[in-house]
Amino acid sequence: MKVFLDIDGVMVHANPYRKVDMEDDGFYRFKSEAVSAINTIENAEIILSTSHRRRYSLMQWKRLFKRRGVNFSKISIIDSDFSTHVSRKEEIEAWIETHHLDYNDLIIIDDDKSLYNLKSPLKERVVLTEPYVGLNDAAGIYKVLQTTKYE
Prior knowledge:
This protein is α/β, with parallel strands linked by helices. The chain has helices at residues 32-38, 58-67, 88-98, 139-145, and strands at residues 2-5, 45-48, 74-77, 106-110, 126-128. Helix 2 links the parallel strand 2 (45-48) and strand 3 (74-77). It starts with a strand and ends in a 6-residue tail after the last helix.
């Protein structure tokens, strides 16, 4: 299962009035509830869609996720051109189209409200979190994984 994953508002809260805890490696400590929820996804191939994605190399991201207890089979990074401003929605749609991904084999976990504008059936593959809370249980993931298969 390919998992488009944001960090702020998903793996950590995005409340500007609260401090985000840090790990010794200088990056955020992921919420244990978020890690548990991600770990319910079998054979997760994480595709980083976060604005932090260029902060580290792929090898560094792999180590960072392993240190935080996130299970995954692969990590990649959405690579888009920063010369034009595009929404998260547009970045994800372009990545899916370019890589010919099957909607049945993906899930998008994000707090970006532009994802409300995705067209069906892709819209049904989204777990939209509350940014001040983040991913706090696997209920949304279960719901997406149980949706009808699309031809």
